[in-house]
Write a structure and sequence with these properties.
Layout (H helix, E strand, L loop, with lengths): L1 H15 L8 E11 L4 E11 L6 E7 L10 H8 L21 E9 L2 E2 L1 E5 L2 E10 L4 E11 L8 E2 L7 E3 L5 E2 L1 E3 L2 E3 L13 E10 L3 E4 L2 E2 L2 H4 L17 E11 L4 E4 L3 E6 L5 E6 L6 H20 L6 E6 L4 E4 L2 E4 L5 H13 L1 H6 L8 H19 L10 H12 L15 H23 L1 H15 L6 H12 L4 H9 L6 E10 L2 E8 L7 E7 L4 E6 L17 E3 L9 E6 L6 E6 L14 E2 L4
Parallel strand pairs: 1-14, 20-21, 21-23, 27-28
Antiparallel strand pairs: 1-2, 2-8, 3-7, 3-11, 4-5, 4-8, 6-7, 9-10, 10-18, 12-13, 14-17, 15-18, 16-17, 19-20, 22-23, 24-25, 25-29, 26-27, 26-30, 30-31
Helix pairs in contact: 4-5, 4-7, 5-7, 7-9, 8-9, 9-10, 10-11
The structure holds zinc ion (ZN).
Length: 608
Amino acid sequence: MIRIIAALLFISSASFAQHGYWQQHASYQMEIDMDATKHQFTGKQKLVYTNNSPDTLTKVFYHLYFNAFQPGSMMDVRSRTIRDADPRVADRISKLKPEEIGYHKINKLTQDGMPLKFHVQGTVLEVDLAKPILPGAKAEFLMDFNSQVPLQVRRSGRDNAQGVDYSMTQWYPKMAEYDYEGWHSDPYVGREFYGVWGDFDVKISIDKKYVLGGTGYLQNSNEIGHGYATPGVEAKQLLGEKLTWHFVAPQVHDFAWAADPDYVHHTTQVPDGPTLHFLYLTDTTGNWLRLQNEFTGAFTLMNETFGKYPYKQFSVIQGGDGGMEYPMATLITSGRNYGGLLSVTVHEALHNWYYGVLATNESKYPWMDEGFTSYAQDYVLNAIGKNPVGNPHANDIQRLAELHKNGVEEPLTTHADHYQTNYCYGISSYVQGSVFLMQLEYIVGKEAFWKGMKRYFNEWKFKHPTPNDFLRVMEKTSGLELNWFMDLWVGTTQYIDYSIEEIEKEKKGRTVIELKRVGQLPMPLDIKVVDKDGNITWYYIPVGLMRGEKPGEEGQINRVVLPDWEWTNPTYEIDIDQKKRKIERITIDPSNRLADLNNLNGVYPFPK
Ligand SMILES: [Zn+2]
């Protein structure tokens, strides 16, 4: 009897756990004391780490990102040897002087009170545990460290090109993620991140003159002032040279902040959404004021379209060297035209969906955070723009075609750090990742696609979804089999190209259109045929691998669903059930969503 009950309990808990899904948990408490004259700080970190894996851990790894900013580091060498260096980095790390480098020095580390043996290997701290952490068990790590903030080279650092004093990102010893694939202790060479879900309680003591912004809710706003105090409340005049800013951030996988004495600080409120904070240096263009208004409106659209942003706050902060996403915040540079400022803000904010809340392993799947974010960015900018177009992603196809022409493609399965060129990494992650979604929308149809996007957000928020987790949601929502598409789009460099080969006006007394699959990657086809009398017929050819059909989409009134095109067949004939029908025009995918790398051969009359 007991046995049966135990078995039933096991089954019910397993079904809640998304097919055995588990993730580690990290709860950080940090006390940081900043010396802003030397750009150094001391830190005390208490990390309660919960091993939710089924494995016994005998080691742990921390990222020590600041160590990347030292001459001879992996990031430095990588930047000086890659074919097309990022100009922001180039050889700048190799020229940093001792007072300009970054470092983390670990002075003391204990596990549940027991001293630990550890070893620093570049940007990775390798720790042998004093006692294994069993499945389901917790360990408390106490660390004393001191750090120097590097001169800003890439993302984090002091004194960026626009004069922001501190861009404090990837700035503390951070536990590496351990998941179903084991440890991901990736050394920092400049690209993507992956962190443990948890919460942060951070106290930062710094000279009174500084204004801070970042991840987390300020706990002592009335003590701090600087635009944070409750309206009408005078900030308490505290004694001493420094203020201690106390932030708490629940359910995040990273914590970032920035500080400058000259930040202007404004807030706006998204109706039924977060408070938005804007922190920036004096701006004479008026762009930042205009941004506050329009971005607040955009945020409502983002909530409605992609799922509800789950935090009470989001901060847009001037800092860093471009635009970079952090939980509940972004650091972006100023000095852009208004369109550029809005665009980068929308992009980085949308990362709080595709990175912040849906925390994919960015190093392994940069196309899932950069690509999905770029797709959402195009969507939002188009929707709030003056002249919305039907397909705001269409330009991406041209950029993919250029990559293909240049012959430097690598499959999307390439780990972000290991792309051979920055160019291919950029196009693959941002463009090909975005076009992945455009292809899915084309394959399953708009309705199922948008349902799937929201379902993905709701089922996988605060977790680490993989490509297959996303695809399964889309399969369940659309009722179609889609793995063939992802396998080829992500795992190979195969591309899409279909052509209209010929129109045989009277093959056996009928009109026949012959199509050819020129590229290797098979796709379903929407084909619009207009005859000389102006009659329109839509032909739809599913790929057999889909095991189903997309329903007709808006505007496809006279639609004929044709038999499957099996992928092994290089050609396909559309037999138009009509004698001597005079065809005026044929277009493969007039919506321009199909990422056909050569559009010219997909229309009739054939272009001269
Ligand atoms: Zn991005």
